[in-house]
Specification:
Blueprint (H helix, E strand, L loop, with lengths): L1 H35 L4 H4 L1 H12 L1 H10 L2 H21 L3 H29 L3 H33 L3 H4 L1 H15 L14 H19 L1 H4 L3 H24 L13 H31 L4 H29 L2 H25 L2 H28 L7 H27 L8 H39 L1
Helix pairs in contact: 1-3, 1-6, 1-7, 1-9, 3-6, 3-10, 3-17, 4-5, 4-6, 4-17, 5-6, 5-9, 6-7, 6-17, 7-14, 7-16, 10-12, 10-17, 13-15, 13-16, 13-17, 13-18, 14-16, 15-16, 15-18, 17-18
GO cellular component, one term: membrane
Organism: Sphingobacterium sp. (strain 21)
GO molecular function: transmembrane transporter activity
């Protein structure tokens, strides 16, 4: 039984590793794709943006499908879709086809991730076992991200950008085979009232519109009618979603499940983490290749040791921290590392000090992400009943990618303000200053909530 559970954990972890690898590996390959298809910088960036938006926008639906249709069915459907789109993207002979497959790949990830997390929470039923399994699962996200950063440039430079997609094929094929053999078919929920999938589509529409609006502010600033229309659509969509969810007999999101203190803290903090991390990677990639003149392969080699460090921290240090400290304090440590990493990168950019760059990467991609993601995920899911874990994990990951979409859009906005920041270096420093503020906000938020919990504990002890 223990060996079978370990294999199930491996299946789920391979999915999150692949998803994180695929997201991170794109950062260092974008310049090569841009040159191959003769694109402008803002065009190539949409390969990352569309993936994040559709992934985050449809995660809630993926989580609900896992709850009612069955975890195994949804996991295998998402894995198969991810496999097909990876092959299609690698074979694409035009940017339009590549964009299409990348977008659909985001939908595949939206099915794959919440079902993988729901498989874990259904397999490991005790709180201690579930916390440990979720910690390992989330650690693989940090490891995959580190490997994507370190290997992305090397693979794209030596084998061609197509191989950043082809590398997915053997991993996802193995996951599909093992899932088919090992995972048990779970019973389908027979709700008399169909789930409110329309609310999920409306929420996705709202997220996509908001991210597009932020991204396109420089082009919309002289088009007041379009601004009014977009803001009206965003507001009406959000209001309708909230009202519909509150009155529907079988809502897509049961907001009562999200009222737990740790659940709210975890989801809000992971939103801030998402807005920081992918934007940090984008700025770092530009700095290494555009300012320092690194090739994609050299940038990948620089990042490689830190992916190894991330794996070691996830494997050995993180379990010890979880046993000894409150989960909110572990999360605060991770976000503090993000803050110092951003500060060090700003100093490195301003004074051209390479050692500060190295320490910045160590803080963020080496240790910060390996600690932050697992701790915040455990906080957000530990108080959720097993039969709602699919939707809860969808909300958690949507929070992260909604933050990512907002963060990337804000960085894109800063990079277009040529009159305020006339050079690329100044644009990058301004972008990192914004990210520094986001990390500081996350640290202060977690600090405030930790103190509030301590005061509540002291009050209860005196009663």
């Amino acid at each position: 039984m223990k060996n079978k559970n370990s294999i199930i954990l491996f299946i789920a972890c391979s999915a999150v590793f692949l998803e994180a690898l695929d997201l991170a590996i794109m950062n260092l390959a974008l310049p090569l794709i841009q040159k191959h298809f003769h694109l402008k910088e803002e065009q190539s960036q949409w390969l990352q943006t569309i993936y994040v938006l559709l992934y985050g926008g449809f995660l809630i639906i993926g989580g609900k499908l896992a709850d009612i249709w069955g975890r195994k069915k949804v996991f295998m459907s998402g894995a198969l879709l991810f496999l097909i789109t990876s092959i299609g993207a690698g074979k694409a002979n035009s940017f339009e086809f590549l964009f299409f497959f990348r977008a659909i790949q985001g939908l595949g990830a939206a099915l794959l991730m919440p079902s993988a997390m729901a498989i874990i929470t259904n397999t490991f039923v005790t709180e201690a076992a579930r916390s440990k399994a979720l910690g390992i699962f989330s650690s693989f996200a940090a490891i995959g991200s580190g490997c994507g950063l370190s290997l992305g440039g090397i693979i794209a430079s030596s084998l061609g950008w197509q191989w950043i997609f082809f590398i997915n094929v053997p991993i996802i094929s193995m996951s599909l085979i093992l899932a088919f053999i090992i995972l048990e078919s779970d019973t389908q929920t027979t709700d008399t009232i169909p789930p409110d999938f329309l609310s999920g589509i409306i929420l996705s529409f709202c997220i996509v519109l908001l991210s597009y609006f932020i991204h396109a502010i420089p082009t919309l600033i002289y088009k007041p009618i379009q601004v009014i229309v977009l803001l009206s659509l965003i507001t009406l969509s959000l209001v309708y979603f909230i009202k519909r969810s509150g009155h529907h007999k079988n809502p897509l999101i049961n907001f009562a499940l999200l009222k737990g203190r740790n659940v709210q803290i975890g989801n809000k903090a992971i939103f801030l983490l998402g807005s920081f991390f992918l934007s940090y990677l984008l700025v770092l990639s530009f700095y290494l290749q555009e300012i320092l003149g690194f090739s994609a392969a050299k940038a990948g080699l620089l990042l490689f040791p830190f992916s190894v460090g991330s794996a070691l921290i996830s494997r050995f240090l993180l379990p010890c921290l979880i046993k000894r400290f409150k989960i909110i304090r572990i999360a605060r440590l991770g976000m503090s590392l993000m803050f110092f990493g951003a500060l060090l990168l700003i100093v490195s950019m301003h004074y051209q000090l390479f050692v500060y760059l190295v320490f910045s990467i160590a803080c963020v991609t080496g240790a910060g992400m390996a600690i932050s993601i697992p701790s915040l995920t455990v906080m957000a899911l530990n108080q959720i009943p097993v039969d709602h874990q699919g939707v809860a994990s969808g909300v958690n990951t949507t929070s992260y990618f909604f933050g990512s979409g907002i963060g990337l859009s804000l960085i894109s906005l800063i990079m277009q303000l040529n009159t305020i920041f006339p050079s690329t270096k100044k644009q990058l420093i301004a972008s990192m200053t914004l990210l520094l503020l986001l990390a500081a906000l996350a640290v202060l938020y977690l600090l405030k909530k930790d103190f509030a919990q301590d005061r509540e504990t002291d009050r209860l002890r005196k009663v």
